Amino acid sequence: MRTFRSCLSRPSRLSCLLGLVVVAACSKDPQSVSRRYLSSGDEYARDGKFKEAAIEYRNAQKAAPKAAAPHLRLGELAIQTHDGETASDEYLLAANLEPQNAVAQVRAASVHLMAGRFLEARTHAEAAIRLAPDNADAHIALGEALAALHDPAQSEPHLLQAAKLAPKSTDAQGALGSLYWSLGRLPEAEKALLRAVELAPDQAAAQRRLASFYLETHRTADAERPLAALIAIEPQNVPAILQRAQVLAFQGRTDEALAAVDGANRIEPDAPRVMLARAFVLLRQKRVDDGIWWAMRARERHPDDFAPPLRIALAQILEAGGRRKAAEQEYAAVLKTAPRNWVAANNLAVLYAADGRFADAEKLARIASAEAPERAEVRDTLELITKRKGG
Q: Are 287 and 320 in contact (CB under 8 A)?
């Protein structure tokens, strides 16, 4: 019987041999090996098997050490697993390995933005736009970097271009809203932030940004809806739960507010911020002694966890409860460790002005104004001091 091998002519055998050589060569080509690992990692990631995906991406990285793609994948995977440090490292490595990779440059710009390195963010975003002028994410990154560098005139055109290139981008609308907000263009800010929520109602960042806008512009009733939406997306989000409790308390719905605080306490039992929120709601119920008791208990039980924001909250509760001298002491304690804290400086300035200590009040108000010149309450404090001095 003739075998299959014997049936092959010499040219056929030669073709097969060449084919095997090509296959063997491809299997050893670093880029091909890396791509296979990336594809395998992508399948694991889609199935939610993040550890297995990370192993495959690391294998891809070993196969092609100078390629950006494995680092970009590892960065994206780290974002999904809430590992910000790894994401930052991987994105920066990708950008350094492939300066001509626009996506890598955009990711690096985002890392620098989050770290407050705005000049570096601008450099990477500009590089991305040179490589890919129609990349909306690059325009968003550059617009945000320029806004942070106090150059709104250059920031706005890039954010508008991003919205034009990607009309359904919630990130573009959110960035525009934040810019307009910082410039005091509140109607335009609200329109953009509402559009961001409309485009992505299930995106936590969009709901959080809109809620913050309403809270900071003293529209507490309007903040309830985005806060409720945010909590539906992130049921364990204690800060959002406590903010909603405060909103409810401001509306006189104090029983609902206490129920919300109870819910937060089930997530973070006896946490200082939860205890302070309970104190605030009790004050709104005119249960002053109970409110002060809870506030002081929070500090006594957590003396090492009282960072400036919590101490400011305690001071505000004491002030609202009529314990002005105790409130002054808390604000002063904050300023000893954080002398440029504008909230503590501004609030203490108001108390000093009420006591006729105008020189001390004005000094603190100037600190607050230097740190937060855009804040209406800071401007109001300076006007208050001027009027009382003149009166």
A: no
